[in-house]
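Severity: low
Component: inverse-folding endpoint
Summary: output formatting inconsistent between runs
Steps to reproduce: submit the following structure tokens with default settings.
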């Protein structure tokens, strides 16, 4: 049986992360499954759709998420949520929904499972925009700089765009479509 208190805790942390772009927040999980499962379990139901892309797609994970949440697996063009494995969609991000001027909230939410935040490796980002006091600097290990450049280009037509959610083994960080970013690679 689902633990509604666990789902509520995860949801609260996600909302906190969306309100504070570029800041990583720890998520207390059940310990039974990876954080990405916990986030998907919290957000997904039979009314949403999911697609996956990137290097090393975990087909079993996608099947499990769809089975347990009831969400539909669809093409990337029709997906409400997209999981990008390997830190790079290889250009597929250009095909996701960015919403319309009448329905900007129809833009997809993109998940990136990553290795970590603010370590010695990764891509250095500087974020500006709503929810950010001045600017925030962060390093994300496990996403490619060209992927972030693509997301930045897509989000340059705000309010159209995509929201980005990054999760490592124990924390979550977001970059909403309203944020502007500059970056420099120190990938290693």
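Observed output (run 2 of 3):
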């Amino acid at each position: 049986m689902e633990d509604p208190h666990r789902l509520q805790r995860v949801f609260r942390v996600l909302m906190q992360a969306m309100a504070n772009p570029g800041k990583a927040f720890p998520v207390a999980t059940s310990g039974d499954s990876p954080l990405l499962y916990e986030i998907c379990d919290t957000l997904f139901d039979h009314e949403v759709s999911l697609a996956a892309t990137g290097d090393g797609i975990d087909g079993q994970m996608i099947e499990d998420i769809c089975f347990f949440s009831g969400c539909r697996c669809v093409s990337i063009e029709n997906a409400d949520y997209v999981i990008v494995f390997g830190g790079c969609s290889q250009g597929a991000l250009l095909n996701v929904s960015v919403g319309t001027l009448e329905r900007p909230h129809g833009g997809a939410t993109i998940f990136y499972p990553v290795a970590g935040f603010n370590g010695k490796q990764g891509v250095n980002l500087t974020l500006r925009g709503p929810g950010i006091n001045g600017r925030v600097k962060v390093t994300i290990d496990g996403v490619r700089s060209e992927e972030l450049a693509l997301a930045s280009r897509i989000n340059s037509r705000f309010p159209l765009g995509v929201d980005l959610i990054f999760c490592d083994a124990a924390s979550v960080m977001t970059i909403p479509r309203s944020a502007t970013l500059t970056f420099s690679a120190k990938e290693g």
